[in-house]
Specification:
By secondary structure, the chain is α+β, with helices and mostly antiparallel strands. The chain is built from 19 helices and 27 strands. Strands 16, 17, 18, 19, 21, 22 and 26 form a 7-stranded mixed beta sheet that branches.
Length: about 775
């Protein structure tokens, strides 16, 4: 059939839908609204729900023919299914319906990753005529409705728009949806309409009903489809179109299987990436509050703000706050900064009232979520006298501080004396005895220790990682043009672990609300170590790993094989930093590496944000910076030898923070102990306006130095995407680190819509950075 004929047929069907003409079924819908739709079965059976209803044994009993359409009653007990979303779904089956308009204010971009709407009083101000407003709430309703009806093309479009609109004003709504709390109430400025745009007349005999978005339903128990005048045997209960993606009766409401989890992953990744940035905004927004009112109702009544609540009450739950702040993926410079952020958030919540259920979470947070053993003695002493102004109690128990001091002293003893804390590993080769501290222990040895009474059941341990890579969250292209989306994806494909077609070697771990959608850092004691490892082969450390955050600016301006370093940290008698390096062969590859820095060589200066290339013009937009380089896919993990080069000058610091996307998967690492040599050089000089900019060198304090020339260390590097809705984590089993050794990964370029240049010639300054979180431990 020619395209013209197809277009004519589609137009004919859509007009029949709008007018209700020649309909052979009267669909009587009840749920959050009650109405009758005059429709056509041959069109409806494109959706899995109606195909099951009309062609899979759900047939009316034979009877005399009638010129009037047969009435079919369908009840939607899911309160996330609304009239506008339902009408859009039906219109799409007919090949029509209004185009969706997702407000740009909610969509993070390369130049404005925290979304233009963060500072807008009304993000819904400009809606094109004839378009259906795709507000965040509507998108969640559209997703729920299309899943229920089993319309994969609409489900795919809704998911794409949701994942690409995760930002400050949407992250809590989307997260609540992912954990089964429904789509939430409309935004204060969100325009309300009882029907879809342009489809006001397709519903007949409409009765609107009050929506109860927080009410829980069981789809499998309560949803049903009734055929009028049918016998009891002909009444049908809605069946799921694919058993692998059935709906779950969730603790709070309805959980949409893996699609709910994918939304949760995007939200968790975003919060780990942008959490510290949003805290500053929220503190400023709440600056006018009267402090420490313990009456929750009075505190809530005194202040109403349009600024999104994330850390404050009304945003994340206390359990989520604790999980994020304790996560290895949470971007923060170090443990001291992690503690400072934690106390600021806790006081922010306490200003709205002190609640005992939250205080239980805060006690757990300050007792075990922060690794105080990596803090110098001066900071440990200051912790002991740091008192909450709201409760008049210390944040950290004295026993926790004392245990941290003992732990760091014990680790120092092992390093300086070379004594082994454990003889529970297989005998080491002669070459590895010097580099191994012998502090690792196998699960089988922990079991033996528990049995003999040598190891207490509650002794904490930390898992030593293996070589692996994993990705949390999705990056799918968003568009308002439905015709540009693939309609060939089935519901089964949508419910696969990943929606993207990235490298097969990247693991997409099973996530859920129970593990905070992949960002939870579990804690283990001796008993749980044994319980989780039936093989007894996992390796554990009695010391918590060292964690720090790195940030790199203007990576795209790096010359080939030139290194751009993070700040240098001291851990267990050794200096470490992370650097990135661009390799321009067959496209662009960017490597990220952990480097053991010599304690006697000069410390390399760290990357810093550069000032704008010209002064800000008060009458016009600021100069636009070039975009940074997104990266994906991979090349082998490899090491590089030490370098000897002069150091650069460094001048400037700014506070604006924007991210560069990183994704990909490592191929098997090189079997050569020293890795592949890489010709490289430090950035050696810059004038006042050069890019990349470098910060003044600040050498960390070194309480002691590890006397070993080669150490064994495990590590992991996590890199969030540019807008933060996904992250990739590379982890390495213990490897040899002689002084000057680097280990890491390099990845090839991936361009995506969120990083393409805008065509209007205008824009905000592009202060783009690549962030990474690193964990590091000795064995």
């Amino acid at each position: 059939m020619s395209p013209a004929s197809l277009g004519s047929l589609q137009s004919h069907l859509y007009l029949s839908f709008l007018n209700g003409s020649t309909a052979d079924v009267a669909l009587h819908v009840s749920g959050t609204w009650d109405a009758v739709y005059y429709l056509h079965r041959v069109v409806l059976i494109q959706a899995g729900f109606f195909q099951s209803l009309f062609t899979s044994g759900f047939l009316e009993s034979g009877g005399p023919s009638s010129s009037s359409p047969k009435e079919v009653k369908v009840r939607f007990p899911d309160s996330n299914i609304t009239r506008p979303a339902f009408e859009i779904c039906i219109a799409r089956l007919y090949g029509g319906g209004p185009p969706l308009f997702a407000p740009p204010a909610f969509i993070p971009t390369h130049s404005v990753p925290l979304t233009p709407g963060l500072s807008m009083s009304n993000p819904y101000a400009k809606i094109p005529p004839g378009h259906q407003l795709a507000s965040p709430r509507f998108l969640l309703s559209l997703l729920a409705t299309s899943i229920y009806l089993s319309i994969p093309s609409t489900t795919s479009h809704a998911m794409s728009l949701i994942l690409n609109s995760v930002g400050p004003r949407t992250v809590i709504r989307y997260l609540n949806f992912a954990i089964g709390q429904g789509m939430g109430s409309p935004d204060e400025d969100e325009p309300q309409s009882s029907s879809a745009t342009g489809l006001e007349q397709v519903a007949r005999h409409v009765v609107d009903k009050a929506e109860s978005v927080n009410e829980s339903y069981s789809l499998l128990d309560e949803s049903n489809v009734e055929l009028e005048d049918a016998t009891e045997d002909e009444q049908a209960q809605k069946i799921d179109p694919a058993e692998s993606h059935s709906f779950d009766e969730h603790e709070h409401g309805i959980h949409y299987g893996l699609l709910s989890d994918k939304i949760g992953e995007a939200c968790a990744s975003w919060l780990a990436r942008w959490g510290t940035d949003m805290l500053e905004y929220e503190e400023e927004d709440q600056a006018g509050w009267r402090p420490y009112d313990t009456n929750v109702i009075r505190a809530a009544e005194r202040h109403r703000s349009n600024f999104p609540r994330i850390w404050r009450r009304g945003g994340l739950s206390a359990a989520w706050v604790r999980a994020l702040l304790s996560s290895d993926e949470f971007w923060i410079r170090g443990e001291w900064e992690r503690y400072q952020v934690a106390r600021r958030i806790v006081e922010l919540r306490r200003k709205e009232g002190v609640l005992e259920e939250e205080e239980r979470e805060w006690r757990s947070l300050f007792d075990s979520a922060i690794y105080y053993c990596h803090l110098p003695l001066e900071q440990l002493v200051s912790l002991s006298s740091d008192i909450s102004p709201s409760t008049k109690d210390p944040y950290v128990p004295l026993s926790t501080i004392q245990a941290a001091h003992w732990t760091q002293s014990l680790l120092r003893h092992h390093i300086m004396t070379g004594s082994s804390a454990s003889q529970n590993l297989p005998p080491a080769s002669p070459g590895s005895r010097d580099k191994d501290l012998g502090i690792g222990i196998l699960s089988a040895s922990i079991l033996s220790g528990i049995t003999s009474g040598d190891i207490p059941k509650d002794r904490p341990y930390w898992l030593v990682p293996s070589d692996a890579s994993r990705r949390i969250g999705e990056s799918t292209p968003a568009t308002n043009n439905t015709s540009s989306l693939s309609t060939s994806m089935s519901m089964d494909q949508l419910f696969q672990r990943t929606l993207s077609s990235g490298p097969k070697t990247i693991q997409h771990p099973i996530t859920s609300e129970a593990n905070f959608f992949g960002i939870h850092t579990p804690s283990y004691d001796a008993e749980s170590c044994v319980a989780m490892d039936a093989s007894g082969a996992s390796r554990w450390s009695p010391y918590p790993p060292f964690r720090f955050g790195a940030e790199f600016w203007d990576v795209e301006s790096l010359k080939e094989k030139t290194r751009l370093h993070s700040h240098t940290v001291w851990y267990a008698g050794n200096l470490f930093n992370v650097y990135v390096q661009v390799v321009r062969k067959k496209g662009v590859q960017l490597g990220i590496y952990l480097h053991r820095q010599s304690s006697v060589d000069p410390i390399p200066p760290a990357s810093a944000p550069a000032p704008l290339l010209s002064p800000r013009n008060e009458r016009g937009p600021s100069p636009v910076r070039a975009p940074s380089i997104p990266i994906s896919t991979s090349a082998p993990r490899f090491g590089s030898p030490p370098l000897s080069s002069p150091l650069p000058l460094s001048p400037r610091l700014l506070t604006q923070t924007i991210s560069l996307p990183v994704a990909g998967t490592p191929s098997p690492r090189s079997s050569t102990p020293g890795g592949t040599p890489v010709t490289s050089s430090y950035i050696t000089a810059q004038n006042a306006w050069s890019i990349p900019a470098l910060a003044p060198v600040h050498a960390p304090l070194q309480p002691f130095r590890d006397p070993r020339s080669t150490i064994a260390a495990f590590f992991a590097i996590s890199c969030p995407s540019g807008t933060g809705s996904s992250l990739t984590r590379f982890s390495s089993a213990p490897d040899s680190f002689p002084i000057g050794q680097s280990w890491g990964w390099k990845s090839s370029t991936l361009r995506s819509e969120e990083y393409l240049e805008t065509a209007d010639g205008h824009g905000a300054p592009r202060e783009v950075s690549l962030r990474a979180t690193i964990i590091l431990g000795l064995v």
